[in-house]
């Protein structure tokens, strides 16, 4: 496995997912980079933007085990993690694993479940394990939770606490498609059917990419650029709470995965510029301003490594 193979793999994945959903090539690549970096993703979008279909097509093309959890107000933590069930044949309790035991788990409309249920995801997302009956069980690897939520529907929902939002490596906000894409959607009545999706990437390839990601080179100057950007979020105007050191670590991992999927074994400053809004938009709490707009402004203000060297010249 090398960087050329990595580029070929992501190209195959994009072509296959496009059989079911179109116009989301960038988002699919983001999800794949997030998986390679060992993270979780939150997708926000209005109803009818194919959030669920996108995730199902993505999982099927990867050939990983997949489960979907429809979050509702009456959901219980045990409905996610599993529980102890009495088996009369053996006269004892046995573990029945819940839908969280899959490689890719779709938490659909995650903000519809009460906080007690949402908290059941925290251990899984952070530790890669769940506790059932006082005993811990490891989750399958690779493991990724992709949660969806509707940003405008507030009735009967429970906003995700900051501690849980911070567990998501990226937040993707889906908007309405362009006119050309919408014309193709209206014309092709087979779009949205994941039955036509074939497996084009296997588990071994995903694990090889995860291992290869660790060897992607990131220069010290780019590390400094990431840290400067994170620290700038804490001092910006209209910011109530800036990004934490975890955000710097997460961004450092994600840019490595992104570079790999671009066919490179090294990170460039543009990788940081592309990915920073997705890593930071849910970690920066503003006093009313749009966090994504604020982050893009900071990206224009914080000097890149090349610009920093120019500014330091006597």
From TrEMBL:
Domain ATPase AAA-3, first and last residues per copy: 40-170
ChlI/MoxR AAA lid domain ranges (all copies): 231-287
Keywords tagged on the record: ATP-binding, Nucleotide-binding
Keyword ATP-binding: yes
Protein origin, superkingdom: Archaea
GO MF annotation, one: ATP binding
Keyword check for Chloroplast: no
PANTHER family: MAGNESIUM-CHELATASE SUBUNIT CHLD (PTHR42759:SF1), MOXR FAMILY PROTEIN (PTHR42759)
Protein name: ATPase associated with various cellular activities AAA_3
């Amino acid at each position: 496995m090398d960087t050329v193979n990595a580029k070929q793999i992501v190209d195959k994945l994009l072509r296959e997912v496009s059989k079911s959903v179109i116009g989301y090539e960038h988002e699919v690549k983001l999800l794949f980079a997030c998986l390679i970096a060992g993270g979780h993703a939150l997708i926000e979008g209005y109803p009818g933007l194919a959030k669920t279909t996108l995730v199902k097509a993505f999982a099927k093309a990867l050939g990983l085990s997949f489960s979907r959890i429809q979050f509702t107000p009456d959901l219980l933590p045990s409905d996610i993690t599993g529980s102890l069930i009495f088996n009369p044949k053996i006269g004892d309790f046995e573990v029945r694993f819940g839908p969280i035991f899959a490689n890719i788990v779709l938490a659909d409309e995650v903000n519809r479940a009460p906080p007690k249920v949402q908290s059941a995801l925290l251990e899984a997302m952070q530790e890669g394990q769940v506790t059932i009956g006082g005993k811990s069980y490891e989750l399958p690897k690779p493991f990724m939770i992709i949660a969806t939520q509707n940003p405008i529907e507030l009735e009967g929902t429970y906003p995700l606490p900051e501690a849980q939002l911070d567990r998501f490596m990226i937040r993707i906000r889906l908007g309405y498609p362009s006119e050309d894409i919408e014309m193709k959607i209206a014309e092709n009545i087979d779009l949205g059917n994941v039955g036509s999706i074939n497996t084009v990437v296997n588990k071994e390839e995903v694990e090889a990419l995860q291992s290869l990601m660790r060897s992607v080179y990131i220069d010290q100057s780019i590390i400094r650029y990431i840290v400067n950007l994170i620290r700038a979020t804490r001092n910006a105007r209209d910011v109530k709470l800036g990004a934490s050191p975890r955000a710097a670590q997460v961004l450092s991992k994600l840019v490595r995965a992104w570079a790999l999927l671009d066919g490179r074994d090294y990170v460039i400053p543009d990788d940081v510029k592309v990915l920073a809004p997705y890593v930071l938009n849910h970690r920066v709490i503003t006093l009313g301003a749009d966090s994504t707009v604020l982050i893009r402004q900071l990206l224009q203000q914080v000097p890149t490594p090349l610009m920093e060297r120019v500014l330091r010249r006597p």
